[in-house]
């Protein structure tokens, strides 16, 4: 095995470790893309980058790199989905895109760049996760769907409770039926205040359904 093959083996090994490291964090959180997906993305990006250097002219390597980015964009879009009024999967999609860039850096032999990038990505995924949880305790946004038996009373009731628990709100679509109303609200405030609002609403016998 010559020096060139040794270099490729090193690049593939580093790429595998980087992909597994980031994928493990996603796997432990039960995300759509996990250990195997991130390992394959990182290694695939490394392989394509190495091939582009070996079989292409210097002016063509950037085209292959841009195609990698385009392909990863389609892959990332596959893990984004809408759940009621919330869009999920954006962080995993961004992590896929960022991990691909690390694979390309490894393919170019920029090992220090890949190490620093891995540390930065893990910091964002792990540390910022707890920062966001702390912020949510202070300023949590929720979408509520309330089914209430008294169509004429619900609006005033919600406004009074939102004011009582210091929650800011905006009314969404309303659906009026003969004996009940379906009302949607976007509400922001402290997590504890949300829980207090829910607890008081659930004591009301006219509440048929409360979802968020």
Automatic annotation (TrEMBL):
It holds the Pfam family MgtC. Keywords: Cell membrane, Membrane, Transmembrane, Transmembrane helix. This is Putative Mg2+ transporter-C (MgtC) family protein. InterPro entries: MgtC/SapB/SrpB/YhiD_fam (IPR003416), MgtC_SapB_SrpB_YhiD_N (IPR049177). Belongs to the MgtC/SapB family. Residues 13-133 form the MgtC/SapB/SrpB/YhiD N-terminal domain. It is found in: Cell membrane. The keyword Transcription does not apply. It is a multi-pass membrane protein. The keyword Coiled coil does not apply. One of its GO terms (cellular component) is plasma membrane. The chain crosses the membrane at residues 6-24, 33-52, 64-81, 112-131. It comes from Siphonobacter aquaeclarae.
């Amino acid at each position: 095995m010559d020096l060139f093959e040794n270099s490729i083996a090193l690049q593939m090994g580093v790429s595998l470790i980087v992909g597994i490291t980031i994928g493990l964090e996603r796997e432990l959180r039960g995300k759509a893309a996990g250990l195997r997906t991130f390992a394959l993305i990182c290694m695939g990006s490394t392989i394509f980058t190495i091939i582009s250097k070996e079989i292409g002219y210097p002016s063509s390597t950037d085209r292959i790199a841009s195609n990698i980015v385009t392909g990863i964009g389609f892959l990332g879009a596959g893990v984004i989905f809408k759940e009621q009024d919330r869009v999920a999967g954006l962080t995993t999609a961004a992590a896929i895109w960022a991990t691909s860039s690390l694979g390309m850096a490894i393919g170019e032999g920029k090992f220090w760049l890949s190490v620093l990038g891995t540390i930065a990505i893990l910091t964002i995924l792990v540390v910022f996760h707890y920062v966001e949880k702390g912020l949510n305790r202070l300023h949590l946004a929720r979408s509520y769907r309330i089914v209430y038996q008294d169509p004429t009373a619900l609006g005033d009731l919600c406004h009074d409770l939102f004011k009582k628990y210091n929650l800011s709100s905006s009314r969404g679509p309303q659906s009026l039926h003969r004996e009940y109303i379906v009302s949607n609200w976007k509400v922001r405030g402290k997590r504890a205040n949300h829980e207090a609002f829910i607890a008081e609403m659930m004591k009301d016998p006219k509440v048929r359904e409360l979802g968020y």
